[in-house]
Amino acid sequence: MAGAHNKGKIFGFPLEGFSLFQSLLLAFASAFFTFFLSTAIAIFALLFWNAGATHKINFADSYLYVGLPAGVVVLLIALPYFLFVWVRAKALHR
């Protein structure tokens, strides 16, 4: 029993037993979280940048130039990874 839980974990969560829907949900949720976290950090950085100097950078640029590329990069990494984990679990349990 103890050996079955040692196949792979991230932050204590097992990397097996996901359905296709759960794998897709995890991939999109990680991209969604990254988009909003990087956008929030970029907005606060622009807030301090604009307040500390006479710059007038538009806050909407943080969505386009920081949040969107970060979310897309994480999605492009997470989607194949979680699909690979799902396919590997399907292949091993046949």
State the gist of this model.
This protein has 94 residues and is mainly α. It has one domain. It has helices spanning 20-52, 61-92, and strands spanning 9-10, 13-14.
Secondary-structure map:
Blueprint: E1 9-10, E2 13-14, H1 20-52, H2 61-92
Antiparallel strand pairs: 1-2
Structural class based on helices, strands and sheet pairing: mainly alpha
Distance between the termini: 19 Å
> Segments where pLDDT lies below 50 for 5+ residues?
none
Q: Quick one: how many beta strands?
A: 2
**Major pleated sheet:** 2 strands, antiparallel
Outline type:
elongated
Beta fraction: under 5%
Please describe what this structure looks like.
A hairpin with a 2-residue loop joins strand 1 (9-10) and strand 2. The chain contains two helices and two strands. It has a two-stranded antiparallel ribbon. By secondary structure, it is mainly alpha-helical. The mean pLDDT is 85. It has helices at 20-52, 61-92, and strands spanning 9-10, 13-14. Helix 1 runs antiparallel to helix 2 (61-92). It is elongated and about 65 Å long. It has one domain (17-92).
List descriptors.
94 residues; 2 helices; mainly alpha; two-stranded antiparallel ribbon
